Fold:
Amino acid sequence: MLRRKAPHYQHRFRNVKNAAYAWRQMVFFLSLLSQSEQEDFGHWAQQHLAAQPRRIAEPFAPSLTRLLAAIEEQASPLPGRVFLGWAVGSHWLLGAPGPERGSV
Structure:
């Protein structure tokens, strides 16, 4: 979903919102696992993210860092970034919106 670049900023933003929804579902299901299973997932997620294109891996790294810190039960404040599907202004996953085709 996020690997494919949608032609318009609104479509890309909708993809981010959908990805954030999926992220929240993942966090819920992770909460049902044992600590060792969560840690196993964390190791897999790090390897999987490292295999992604740089334009995907770099922006997502802070969110994965925060998730891994939560899995490791680090004290607050947790490092990294919360992955939300909304933002004031442009979303950090998308950068600044470019001009749309046909806009003035």
Observations:
- The longest helix spans residues 9-31.
- Confidence is low (pLDDT under 50) at residues 98-104.
- The two ends are 29 Å apart (CA to CA).
- The CA atoms of residues 50 and 57 lie 6 Å apart.
